[in-house]
Structures are given as C-alpha cells and as structure tokens.
Amino acid sequence: MDSIDYYNKNASLYFENTVDINTEENREKFMSAILEGAAVLDLGCGSGRDSLEFIERGYDVTAIDGAEELCELASIHIGQDVLCMQFDELDFDEVFDGIWASAALIHISPEELKGVFEKVIKALKPGGILYMSFGHGDFTGYLNGRYFQNFKTKAMKDFLAGYSGLELLEIWKSTENLGEANLDEWLHIILKKQEEKQE
Where are the domains of the chain? Predict the structure, then answer.
C-alpha cells in the first residue's frame, strides 16, 4: 500500500484528526511574505484546513491532493473544487505567488523528490514564496502504511544548495502535532524564487 492508498482508505479519520489543528503561526509567517489576494497553491491540502484559512483571508486558492477521497471531503469543507493530482503530474508554469506545502513533500522518496521539487519551483512566479515542512530527523522509509522522508537542518540546506535560483528566507524547528502520529518534531522552510534578471 502506498501513501495515496493509505489516505484514500483512512480519509474520514485523517480529516477528523487534522481539520482543527492550529497551524496559524506557520501560516502567518508564509502570508507575511506574500501580498494580499495573491494566488496560492495548497499542495497536498489534506482536509483543506489551511486552504479554508487562506480563502477566508482573501487569497486566490488552488487546492490539490493526490487522494481522491480526501479531495472530496476537502472540497466540501472549503466550498470549492479540489484538484485530484499526483505531485509528479504538476504542470504549472509561473502561476502562483505562493505555494504552501505543509507536510506534503514528506511522502516523496529521495529518488523522486528532485523532479517533483523542480515542478514545484517552476509553478512559482519569479519572486514567489514556497513554504514546506518535513519531519525533523534522519528516518526515511515506510511507517504505518505511509512513506516518510525526514530532514535535519543540514541535510535540507545541502539539498537546497543545488538550486541557485532560490533564496532561503527562514528555516526553523518546532515541536507540534500536525496530524502525523509518528512525528512531533518538524522542520519548516520558507524560500523565495529569485526575480528574473533584466537584460
């Protein structure tokens, strides 16, 4: 069973366990870096918890998730369609002012992460902001029906060093419950895609 299967089979329980989690502090850091009314992609929106907050704050939100059952629940919750799409199917070209990937890319294997990450960066407008979070640690592998890839701060900085067009604005750790029963320490990253150079 892969991670998508897990979320489809446990959609209702996952929705109930995560829809009321408070991610305000992380969201506020992200929103402070983008303009009001900006176009935001909620990558791996899950329950739609954060999408709804962004919508209510006036952002133009596109929400996607890979699990069809979660998409249906999230669509009802946020009052608009959620796109059912695998991350490797992303095909946006400089569309979004901000991308919110809270505990989303955590399920991508090391072999696939580079390709998916490049699609995510391509989807950002020049000057756009990316927030992402991973479990903090060394573990990589399957646990309770899902694949996890965690990062420590140095490993994340090493990964990001391969992308010259990104500026690391902030990286921090926190201890909190984001709905993943096996994780309570998180690594948060905010990046800015550099503006295109004028000729």
Answer: 3-193
